[in-house]
Amino acid sequence: MWTLSGFSDEISPDLAEQASLLGELGLSYLEFRSAWGTNVLDLDDEQLTRAKHLLDAHGLRVSSIGSPIGKIFLDEDFEAHLDRARHAVDVAHRFDAPYIRVFSFFMRPGTDPDHARDEVLRRMRALADVAERGGVVLLHENEKEIYGDIPRRCVDLLESVGSRHLRAAWDAANFVQVGVRPFTEGYAALRPHLEYVQIKDAHLVDGEVCAAGRGDGEVAETVRALREDGFDGFFSLEPHLSQAHSLGGFSGPELFTEAWQAFTALLKEEGIEHR
C-alpha cells in the first residue's frame, strides 16, 4: 500500500493549521520543510521541540526533511553548507525521518552543467558520506537549473556517487519545466534509483504548475508503471498551485485540498490503495 505525505507548509505558515488540514484529509505523514515562516533547518531548539510536540499530538510523522541542502551555487562555500547538512541529519533524527531531500547545486547563467560535473560529484559524495554516517537517505530532487535537472545527469550523478544513501526523488513537474516528458524520457533509466515520488504536474507549453494528471507530467503512466513493478513508498504532495520560487511554494488550504483530491482520484481510477 502506498503512503501519502505532503509539503504541509504549502497549506499555511502555521504548523498547527498545517496539521489540522492534514488530519482532515486523512494524511498521517508530512514532509517537513518549514514552520512559522522559517525553514526547518533554521528553527531553533525551542521551536523544534514545539514542532515535535505538536506533530505528536496530531498523530503525524515526518516522511522526509524538506531541506534546501544543495540549493547554493557551485562557487559558494561548501564547508559551511556541509555543516548545515550535518545539522539536517540531526533534525531528521529528532523527527524520526528516514529521508532528507537535497539538490545538486545551482549553475551560474552561461555555465555548461557537464563542465561542472567533477565538482558536483565531489560535493554530492561528501553529502552522501554525511548521510551514511548519520544513517539516513538523501533524496536528490531533479530541480530545474541545478546539475541534476535532466534524466541523463540525474542518472550519472546517482550512479557515479554510487551510495545507497543517495537516491532519487522523482518530480514530474520539474522535468516538464526543463522540456522533458518524464515517463517517456526518464522513467526507465531512473527507476533503479527511484525511492520517493513528489506529486505535482506542469504544462510543457509554459511550465505552469497544475494538479496531478492535468498537465504533461505523465503522472498516470508513471503511477501505473510503479504499481506494476512493485514500488512501495511515499508520494508527497508539493502542489505549488498559488506560488512557486527557488526555495519552495505555496498553495493555501483550498488548493492543497484540490491537489490531494486530484491525486487520490487518479489513484482510485487506477485501482490503487493508499493510506
UniProtKB/TrEMBL annotation:
Keywords per UniProt: Isomerase
UniProt key word Phosphoprotein: no
Lineage top rank: taxon: Bacteria
A molecular function (GO) term: isomerase activity
Gene3D superfamilies referenced in this protein's UniProt entry, alphabetically: Divalent-metal-dependent TIM barrel enzymes
Pfam families, per database record: AP_endonuc_2
Sequence ranges assigned to domain Xylose isomerase-like TIM barrel in this UniProt record: 24-240
Entries under InterPro entries matching the protein: IolE/XylAMocC-like, Xyl_isomerase-like_sf, Xyl_isomerase-like_TIM-brl
Entry keyword annotation includes Transmembrane: no
Name of the protein this chain belongs to: Sugar phosphate isomerase/epimerase
